[in-house]
Specification:
The chain is α+β, with helices and mostly antiparallel strands and 619 residues long. It has 3 domains: 216 residues, no CATH class; 255 residues, no CATH class; 81 residues, no CATH class. It is 43% helix and 21% strand. The chain has 23 helices and 21 strands. The strands form 4 sheets. Strands 11, 12, 13, 14, 15, 16, 17, 20 and 21 form a 9-stranded mixed sheet that branches. Strands 1, 2, 3, 4, 5, 6, 7 and 10 form an 8-stranded mixed sheet that branches. The chain has a two-stranded antiparallel sheet with strand order 8-9. β16 and β17 form a beta hairpin. α12 packs across α14 and α21 runs parallel beside α23. The longest helix is centred in the N-terminal third of the chain and has 38 residues. It is flat and about 75 Å long.
Amino acid sequence: MMMKQQLYNVRVKSLAVTLAIVWLCSQIIAYMYIDEYIFTKIPKKSVVHQKSCLSQFLDVFQKHKVSMIFFDIEILPEVFQARPQTWHDSDHQCKTMCKFHPENKNVISFAIQAYQFNKHKDRIRADLKVHGFAVHMTTARDPVVFQSEGKTQFIPTYLWLAKADHVIHVAILYERQNSYVWIGPVTDRNWKNTVSVLSKELTGGWHSMEKIGAKFPTYEQAFEKSQRFLSFPLTIDGHRISLPYHINDFLNEYRQSRFIECNYAQARKFRKDFPVEPNAFYKKLRQRMKDSLSKVIKVLDRLHVTFWLSGGTLLGWHRECDIIPYSKHIVLGVWNNSLKQNVRSILIDEGIVLLHRLGRENDSYHLSFLGKEGIPIEMFSFYVEDDFVWYGGTQADNGRKYRFYFEKFDLCWTEYLELKVRVPCQTDQYVEASIGKDWMLPREQWIWNLDPPNVHTNGQWPEHEWEQVIRVHTEEKKQKGEEEDVVEEMIADAVEPETVHNDENIDRPYVASESKMKNSQGAVKNTRGEMSDNLEEDKNPEEKASKQKANTLNHVLKNARKQAKVEETNTDQKLEQKDYKKAQLKKVEDIPTKTGQDSIEKVETKIDKMLDKAVQDKE
C-alpha cells in the first residue's frame, strides 16, 4: 500500500513539472511575439500619412459610386488575422491597410469595375489631383472591339497614384462573355510613363519603384466572375470595401491568372486566304461544339481537373480563332492521373457517353466521349518527364503504341467559342511540335500516327492485354435498355470524316477495329436519333450525297491504308512510307464513288489491283 502511494506521488510531481515547463515555454514565446510586435511598429508619422492617403483616395471613389475591391495579395492572406508588423494606431482606423516597410515606402492594390469607372474617369482623376495625388492611367487596345470589328480602340487598364512616397495601384476589371473578368496588359512603355509621372511624388531613395513594379504582372489576367470574387462587402478601416468571398481560392486563381489573346489579325488574314462560308450548317456545328465543350468544362472545373485545348482544336484557335470548319470533334489535354473514375461517371451522368478507353492510366491513356450534340470529345493524358512531356496513342486494330513529345510548357487562359479555356502559353512551340512549321496551311490528308513531327513508335501492347488496354464501352447504353451496337455505330460515325479535307483527323487515332465496325452495320437507322439527326437536319440533299460519297471513300481509304502499311524502323523509312501512302491516297481520290456508280466492292478490287501493281513497281 505504501509503495502505491509513493508511486502516485511521483506521478503527480512529474505531471506538475511538465505543466510548469509548458507554461514557461508559452510565456517565452508570448514575450518574443510581443517584443517583435512592439519594436517593429511603423513610425506614427507614416501611419498618419498612409491613413490620410487611403481616406482621400477611397472617399473620391465613394463620391462617384465606384465600388472598391481589395486586391492586395500581400494583405489578403492575413486580412482576418493579427499582423505583427502592422501598426494599430490609437483609434484603430488603419489596422489592416497600413503596411510596414523598412523605408516607409509602401504600395497597396485595389480593383474597380470598368463599367462604373469609365463613366466618371475624367472627374475622378481631376478630384484625385485636387487632393495632391500624381495620377497616371495606362491604356491598351480593346480586344473585344478589335475581334468583332477589326478596329483599334484604347481602353483604361490601370490607374496609378502617388503622394509623398505612398503609391496606390488600381486594376480595372472588364467583364467578358458574362462569365469572367479581364485585366489588360502593361507594356514597357506603359511602365516607363508611369514611373515618369509618379516620380515627382517619390523621394530620391525611392529607387524601389522598379522593384515594386516587378510585384505586379505585366501580362493580361482573367478571373472567374462569381460570388466569391465580387460580392462580399465589408467595412475595413472605416471604409466599405469588397473582398473575394474565398480568399485562398482567389489567391490560387491569381497565381494562375495569365491570359493570352487570340491573334485576331492573323485569323482574319487566314480566313481571307482560305474563306469559309458561314452557312446554317457551319453555324449550328459551331454552336454544338460550344455546347459540348461547355458541358465538359463545367464537369472538369467542378472536379478541379486542369485541362487545355490540344491537337486540331488548339490549331483552330491558334490559326483561326475559331473551329476548323471541317472538324467535328474536340481534343483536350489533361495531366496524368486526372481522368479518374469519377470524371467518367459524372460525364456519363451529364449525358456524355464513354465511347472507348485506350491504354492505362500510367501509359498512353486516352478517353473518347460523345455527347447528345453529336460531337466527339477526346481526352489525352500527358506525362511529365525531367526535360519534356508526352502523350500516347494506341492503334486499336494491332495494339501498336506511339508517343508524341513536347517541350515543357505553361498554361494560360484564353477565350474560345466565347468560353474561358486554357491553352499552352508557348502555343507556337506546341503547335509546331504536333503539326509542323507549315501549320498555317490547311492539310488535305493527315495520318495521325505518321505525319506529326513529334511522333515516335513506342512498341506494342502484348496481345493478351488487349482486352484491358483497348476497350469499347457499352455498359452505359445497356443501362438505358439500348443495344450494344448503338455505341459501336456512334464510334463508326465519329471516326468517319465528312470530307476528304482531313484537318479533323489531326489527332484522331484509328479507334474501332474492322471486326468491331462490322458489328455496327445497320445501327444507323435505329439509333442515331437525337445525336445523328442533329448533324443531318441542316443538310440539303446535295450535302447528304456528299457525305455518302465521303463515307464510301473513307471505307476505301481505310483498306488502302491497311494494305499500304509499312513497319516504321528509322527516319528514312518513315519518310519513304509517307510519300508512298500519299501517292496511293491521291489515286484513291480519283476513283468514282457516287451513288449509281461502282459499288464499294468494285472500288476495293480496283484499290487492291492498284496497290499490287504499285508494290511490284516499287520492288
